[in-house]
Design brief:
alpha+beta; Rossmann fold; OB fold (Dihydrolipoamide Acetyltransferase, E2P); 5-stranded antiparallel β-sheet; 21 strands; 23% helix; flat; binds adenosine-5'-triphosphate; ABC transporter; ABC-type ferric iron transporter activity; P-loop_NTPase; iron; cell membrane
Amino acid sequence: MTDGLVLDSIGHDYDGVPVVKDVSLQVRPGELVCLLGPSGCGKTTTLRVAAGLEAPRLGRVILNGQLVSGGGVHLPPELRHVGFLFQDYALFPHLDVLGNVTFGLRSLSDAEREARARQMLAQVGMEDYARAWPHQLSGGQQQRVALARALAPSPSLMLLDEPFSGLDKRLRDQVRDETLHVLKSTRVATLMVTHDPEEAMFMADRIAVMRGGEIVQMAAPEELYNQPRNAFVASFFGEVNLLEGVVRQGNVATALGNFPAPGLGEGTRAEVLIRPEGLSLSPAPEGEAVVLTARPLGRSSLVHLRVERAGMAPCHLHSRLRSGTAPAEEQRVTIAVDATKAFVYPIPE
Ligand SMILES: Nc1ncnc2c1ncn2[C@@H]1O[C@H](COP(=O)(O)OP(=O)(O)OP(=O)(O)O)[C@@H](O)[C@H]1O
């Protein structure tokens, strides 16, 4: 038996238009997995399938070893033992905080319900607000109560859909941090939808990057950043410099020199993506690049470069350097490339 959530070859469409295509993933107890991708790529539909709000057209959903969707079975959400946290926290306005958190604890005695609810409120730092009304709470406080309410029945799976997008930036960072710690301490399996790569990297043990209804790559954040499978994933996780060329004898020739292109055939058009922090600069009167501007951005500086190499079209690149180490404007420099921050992919025909 596999604990946690298993989505096995899920396919779903609306009015005959496929929006989720052959999605398989697993979320283990104690693990937080993010579905990440641009608007309309099928993240929410995948989450709704896991919740039981949609019956998938293809594939199976298995929760703690029990088949809950597929093969003629479809268990409704209320029988799945799943906790929800969505963007609009939707606390019940006619119940106070304690009433909201005890709401889902039907099978316990009154005293047990209250004890459990108070325990959950303490876990999210809201024990002093048990008798407050939702409208008296800030957005962040409402979100914490919603988290306590969702976790109170000890669900076997938590589903979060853009849960922080209604909060302003400073509050969002704080609530995100608290939510991560509470989820981790309860060891509940969690599947979360976000379109924000930074948020996914902050929250997730593993991220499933989606595009056009499919999972393009699923891995730990570090692996996605350092070993992206294609140009879409590489550029989704941060700025990249883009150079193009044609493969000759196993290399792509660019304005920054040759890059190995293992596995790509002679004459293949290829793109080289290099993260700005992968370009380091040394002042040199005969250098191939000139500094256009250098902008301090807190801990780092972003240097704009114009690269001129004989026989190649000039190109504009960005280098990100430790603050205080940027060369002066109009300085000539040579560029060294950190090969671990450069990625070569064939350009699709
Ligand atoms: N109930 C529905 N009926 C018809 N089409 C729908 C329905 N729900 C979603 N869609 C469409 O299915 C596609 C996938 O939507 P989904 O909400 O799963 O994507 P998403 O990645 O979560 O995007 P977003 O971040 O914008 O919510 C979109 O093209 C959307 O317009």
